[in-house]
Design brief:
Number of domains of chain B: 3
Pfam families (chain A): Fer4_15
Largest sheet of chain B: 6 strands, mixed
Keywords (chain A): 3Fe-4S, Electron transport, Iron, Iron-sulfur, Metal-binding, Transport
Shape of chain A: globular
Distance between the termini of chain B: 55 Å
InterPro entries (chain A): Fe-S_cluster_ET (IPR051269)
Strand content of chain B: 25-35%
Number of helices of chain B: 9
Largest interface: A-B, 20 and 25 residues
Order of helices and strands of chain A: EHEEHE
Strand order of the largest sheet of chain A: 1-4
Oligomer: heterodimer
Protein name (chain A): Ferredoxin
Number of helices of chain A: 2
Largest sheet of chain A: 2 strands, antiparallel
CATH class of the largest domain in chain B: Alpha Beta
CATH architecture of the largest domain in chain B: 3-Layer(bba) Sandwich
Cofactor (chain A): [3Fe-4S] cluster
Radius of gyration of chain A: 11 Å
């Protein structure tokens, strides 16, 4: 666990699946391809992958709030 | 390196600026944008914004606090007008001169227009808001160009009760991009929703009350949207010494000259996977290249070619279209999952003896990801594809 929290706006999601490619431990997709958050507070070792997911999301649907 | 300038404040420029900070760059970071807005997202302009589902407050790519945290020397509403690579300075429209040690060019593209006047284009927030204000039930919109942008706008307008005529110069919409068979399947969706699709029609002029055609005919309309492609914003680089040929010409690392990189819609680079020089106007390409250009600029000793698998999506009439890899110039198309008639399928594109690209319509993520992998690994065609259309 870490202090960082992931925020996902599913109504922005375009089902690209890029977040799953970047951080498969933290994101999955439902049957329609819409991103699903597996861990709201990802483990510290996954934070770099989440930052990558934030950066590559084509819909700007993911935020990482770091405290 | 103490002074880095990023010219272009949209997706590619923002990704570059963010990556520079994430990778530990602490020097002066200037981000120049000719639009007055903080970096915002363009794909929703032809979808949620045009449909009036989203207001402008949903478009910024980062919140004000996130942007402030980057510690930028942010120059919005100011165009770069010239580049002196010998003295390493960017000239600005306001008369100033910004020096740099490293430079990233991300000035994007602008829409092509028609001769004449009174027609809309769709690239900026203002473009989208101006068009949306004119869309109302019973009005007639002519869309010139049935590419993905024109098709999305047509779909939204139909959803708003607007009469839509879609004019396309090719015999089949999108045929050059996705092949004739798939182009035909995708364009059937327009006919189903009552869009008048006219192919093989060349438009010569916007007249204010519609458009004039090359065969002497005309189409009257309340509004005209021109969606006939884009031109890279490179004029300001004249005399800079950079090679410009339908984009800023770069090597595989996105470098255009020593210490000068390009990213996004404006960059033409040598793609290692395809072996050809490409310019790609996809949202994900902008972000990926912004990140890659930033890393290569900052750490030239560890630089890597930009070899991401191209990806784009489109939404029309609730039909989600996703494509990975290289579709243009393919040798063969095969439906490998689902069925064309259901408008629910994966089509694979053969280039040589490899799976070069895939296009999925309304398919579950597992199928899309499986085929994305095949593209990423340039899977041998014969081992993966059996059904052929």
């Amino acid at each position: 666990m870490s202090g960082a929290e992931v925020e996902l706006e599913t109504d922005r999601c375009v089902a690209s699946g890029q977040c799953v490619v970047a951080a498969g431990q933290v994101f999955d997709q439902d049957d329609d391809g819409i991103a699903v958050l597996l861990a709201e507070r990802p483990a510290p070792e996954h934070l770099d992958d989440v930052r990558e997911a934030v950066a590559v999301c084509p819909a700007a649907a993911i935020r990482l709030l770091e405290r | 390196m103490n002074r880095i300038v990023v010219v272009g404040a949209s997706a590619a420029g923002l990704a570059a600026a963010e990556t520079l900070r994430r990778e530990g760059y602490e020097g002066t970071l200037t981000l120049v944008g000719d639009e007055p807005h903080a970096p915002y997202d363009r794909p929703p302009l032809s979808k949620q914004v045009l449909a009036a589902e989203w207001e402008r407050d949903r478009l910024p790519l980062r919140r004000p606090g996130e942007l402030a945290a980057l510690g930028l020397d942010l120059r919005l509403g100011t165009a770069a007008t010239g580049l002196d690579t010998a003295r390493r300075r960017v000239r600005m429209a306001d008369g100033g001169d910004v020096p740099y040690d490293g430079l990233i060019l991300a000035t994007g593209v602008r829409p092509r227009r028609l001769p004449g006047g009174g027609a809309h284009v769709l690239r900026t927030l203002e473009d989208a808001l101006a068009l949306r204000e004119r869309l109302a039930p019973g009005r007639h919109l002519v869309v010139v160009g049935a590419g993905f942008l024109g098709a999305e706008a047509a779909a939204v307008a139909r959803g708003l009760g607007v009469q839509v005529t879609l004019l396309e110069p090719a015999a089949v919409p999108l045929a050059h991009a996705v092949g004739e068979e798939i182009g035909r399947v995708l364009s059937r969706a327009h006919a189903d929703r009552g869009v008048r699709l006219r192919c093989g029609v060349t438009v010569t002029e916007a007249t204010g009350g519609g458009v004039r055609l090359a065969d002497g005919g005309a189409v009257e309309a309340d509004e005209v949207l021109v969606a006939v492609g884009s031109a890279p914003n490179t004029e300001w680089l004249a005399g800079s010494g950079l090679t410009v040929a339908d984009g800023v010409v770069c090597d595989a690392y996105l470098e255009a000259a020593p210490g000068v990189y390009a990213a996004g819609d404006v960059a033409r680079w040598l793609h290692p996977l395809s072996g050809t020089s490409l310019r790609i106007e996809h949202r994900t390409n902008a972000t990926g290249q912004g990140m890659a250009a930033a890393r290569n600029l900052l750490r030239p000793e560890a630089r890597r070619p930009f070899a991401a698998v191209p990806y784009f999506w489109s939404d029309q009439y609730g039909m989600r279209i996703q494509a990975h890899g290289f579709l243009r110039g393919h040798d063969e198309v095969a439906v490998v999952e689902g069925a064309l008639d259901d408008r629910r399928f994966v089509a694979a594109y053969r280039t040589g003896d490899r799976v070069g690209g895939v296009l999925a319509v309304a398919m579950p993520p597992a199928a899309v990801q499986r085929w994305r992998q095949a593209v990423a690994h340039r899977a041998p065609w014969g081992e993966h594809v059996r059904v052929t259309v």
